[in-house]
Structures are given as C-alpha cells and as structure tokens.
Recover the amino acids of this structure.
C-alpha cells in the first residue's frame, strides 16, 4: 500500500509565480472527515435497489488504504440479473488543495483475483470529471471499475470466498489526484482500495 504524501512537479514558473499547489490530498469531502479516503459505490444495482456492496463512508481507511466487503448472495444475483451480468463500481472523492486552479483524476492499477472464473473481463471505463468535487453522483470522479460476468447454466457466475484460496476473490485499484496552477502541479499519493468478496 502506498504511503501518504505529495509530490510536487514544478513547471517553468511564470513571472510572479510563488509555488505549486500545496496540501493536496484525496478525501471524502471538502473538509473534516475523511482525508486520504474515498467512498465506493455500486452504479449498477438490482431492480429493487439491491446492493451487495458493504456500506462505506471512508472511515475505514488507514494510511490511505481500505478493504470493503462485497457479499455473495441474493443481492449480488439481483444486481447481475438487472444489468446483463455487469457490475460497475464508482469512486466518490474530493481533491483538497491550496492554491490550485485546475484538477485531474486517475483511476489505475486494476488487479482482479478471480479464483471462481466468474469474470469474462475487467476494465476501467467512463470519462473523468474535470473538477475537484467528485462526490455528487454514484459515478463520482467519472471513470469506474467494470466487471463483466460469465453466464452459467442458470444465470450468471459469481465470485465468492471459498475459504481456501489466498488471496480470495477481489479487485484492487488506486485513485490519485493532481492539482495544478501557473507554477506547476502537485500529485497526491494514491489511495488504495480493495473490494473483497465474502
């Protein structure tokens, strides 16, 4: 897991320029709780709003990392049946920064562990927002994680924790933010997320 910090990338400064943005971090809101954290959402739910993703608000992050459970069962099946076997996970985040005039996001390093052979493809899809506030909708910062499931004989195959495989079925990914002004850019270290099937 990454350590928490900021890397400043200085562009050729303009006359009168003082410094690149400071105090850049990825958080769940503009102030207060929680810093170095994000909120993960299910974009695709069941027809009745079923959602197998455990409730999360950023409070579980420590050192810029957290593991969030996804529960095997009827809610998982309902999500797949209502969305042609596709799960989409959004990232809600707010980029805190002092002295910034523009912002950019990166969702990267998606790693799938699929011992169940349930997934036909995993990808990062969508389009990034261009502002610092990615908390307004389920799709959050714009890009999202997509998991396409294989179809079985009686529906869609599902990932689960078999209690034996290590690591168990999961995905991991990283969220990063860059704040920029006329002096240069400052890149906050990544926030690392694990979604683990139970």
């Amino acid at each position: 897991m990454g350590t928490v910090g900021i890397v400043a990338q200085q562009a050729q400064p303009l006359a009168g320029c003082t410094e690149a943005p400071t105090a850049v971090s990825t958080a769940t809101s503009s102030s207060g709780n929680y810093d170095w954290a994000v909120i993960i959402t299910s974009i695709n739910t069941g027809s009745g709003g079923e959602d197998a993703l455990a409730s999360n608000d950023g409070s579980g992050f420590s050192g810029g990392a957290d593991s969030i459970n996804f529960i095997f069962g009827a809610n998982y099946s309902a999500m797949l049946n209502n969305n042609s076997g596709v799960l989409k996970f959004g990232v809600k985040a707010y980029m805190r920064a002092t002295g910034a005039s523009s912002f950019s996001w990166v969702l990267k390093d998606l790693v799938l562990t699929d011992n169940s052979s349930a997934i036909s493809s995993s990808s990062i899809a969508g389009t990034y927002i261009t502002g610092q506030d990615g908390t307004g909708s389920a799709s959050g910062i714009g890009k999202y994680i997509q998991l396409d499931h294989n179809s079985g004989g009686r529906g869609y195959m599902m990932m689960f924790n078999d209690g034996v495989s290590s690591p168990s079925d999961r995905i991991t990914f990283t969220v990063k933010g860059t704040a920029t002004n006329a002096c240069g850019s400052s890149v906050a270290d990544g926030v690392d997320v694990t979604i683990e099937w139970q």
Summary: The helical segments are 74-82.
